[in-house]
Amino acid sequence: MSNTVTWTGARLDLAVMLWRLGVSTSNIADALGVTYPAIQSLTCYRRDLFPDRGRAFKPVEATPEVLAPKVASDRVTRTTISGAKITLPRVTFIDGPYRQAAE
Q1: Measured between alpha carbons, how far is residue 78 from residues 46, 70, 84 in Å?
Q2: Is residue 8 within 8 Å of residue 94, measured between CB atoms?
Q3: Cα 87 to Cα 79: distance, rounded to the nearest angstrom
C-alpha cells in the first residue's frame, strides 16, 4: 500500500490559501488530513505556489474560520489544454463530495 498523497485541484488550492494566510505547516497537514512530511515535500517541490516565508515568519493561529473548507458548488471550472475555461458538473471521485452549507 502506498503512502502517496493525491493533490487534487481543490486540496492544492486549500493548501496554497492556508500557506499564504500564514497557517503553520503542521496545521495545514491537520486541516487536509495528511502527514506533516507530505506538506513539507509539497512546499519544497512547488516553490512556485509556496514562496519562502523567511526566518522572521510567525505562523498565525489556526482558527476554525481559517481552516473551514468552503462549501463546494455542484459545478466546477476547468481549464482545457488550449487554455479555455469551461464549467462542468462536479465529479465526486475527482473533486470530492458536494457539501451542503451549514445552517
Answers
A1: 21, 18, 8
A2: yes
A3: 9
Closest CA to 43 of 5, 76, 3: 5
Tens-digit pLDDT profile for residues 23-58: 888 888 888 888 999 999 888 888 888 888 776 666
- Beta-carbon contacts of residue 17 (< 8 Å; ≥ 6 apart): none
Residue 40 grid cell: 513539507
Total of domains in the chain: 2
Contact at 8 Å (CB) between 14 and 31?
yes
Find the angle CA(53)-CA(57)-CA(58) to the nearest 5 degrees: 135
Which domain does 84 fall in, by range? 71-103
